[in-house]
Design goal:
binds tryptophan; Rossmann fold; 23% strand; 7-stranded mixed beta sheet; 2 domains; 339 residues; 3-stranded antiparallel beta sheet; alpha/beta; globular
Amino acid sequence: MPPSTASVPPLTREYANVHAAANSGVGQARTAHGSAVAIAEIGAGLAAAHASVSPKFLYDALGSRLFEAICELPEYYPTRTEAAIFAEHGAAMAHAIGHDTTLIDLGAGNCAKAARLFPLIHPAQYVAIDISADFLRESLERLQQRFPHIEMAALGLDFSSSLALPPTVRAEKRLFFYPGSSIGNFTPQEAVDFLRRARAQCDSDGALLIGIDLVKDSAVLDAAYDDPLGVTAAFNLNLLRHLNHLAGADFDVRQWRHRGRYNAAESRIEMHLEARHELTVHWQGGTRLFDAGEAIHTENSYKYRSSAAVGLLEQAGFQAMNVWTDPQGWFAVIHARAI
Ligand code: TRP
């Protein structure tokens, strides 16, 4: 593990260890590849009748950078629409949020979205959480130099399974920040369960600031998840390289193609990797034949009507909501209180 710098508390841990710890409570043995737990999880998904891989494996160092590139694409409206909502309604949000919060950034990535909030809400502490811990550490070190007065901590954690926060995270005025409509990558039931866990980490002075993508014309959605430049395809296909590394698999990226399409009945974008022809894949502890056209499901991205989004937050135990949207009604940012 590379040494951490003085400015960032050494909460950041290697992904594989954290993942194992999150599942078992103790550090588990690592193999030459990822943790034994990660390999078992990947193997089970690949061997299932409808093969699938958890979207959290999309975000290795290259995947995180490719996702940043997706956010620059004209077709990928969520990032810039959400940014426009923050730019337009930042003052109103700051008024609802107040100062001196403990800002807990779920899936912080390059920390840029939270950094834009700092001058508006003046948090007392900033806790950046992401699965790609190394990427996070680099981002946070730069940020600490720009905002030396905010206490900062980096935490490498797979928060999709557990939200247990170390005691170094202040209990007062916790504000869970969950932008980018990442909530859409859970099923609605998983989303409620996840938000309940966040709610359980709040005292009555706690709150949530969340970005949620809304239902819209399917042509707009399809273009956002299958862009003509192929950046989204590269991002999705990079998962196979990551699996080669984590699970000792032998995927040949050129044998696969990206598919991203809106399923209106389910109100979700479905992302797949599809075998271009019949092929066999081996990984540590398993093997599988894929027929031509057979696919690995990599991610869903649910889209909500704003009434359904509010309902989701209420089900999770949040109240007193403020909802801000863009003029086209494509995206919503919601502040909800634990009360
Ligand atoms: N959370 C992003 C979203 O649902 C992730 C994403 C964007 C994604 N494009 C993708 C995931 C393509 C897999 C494949 O918008």
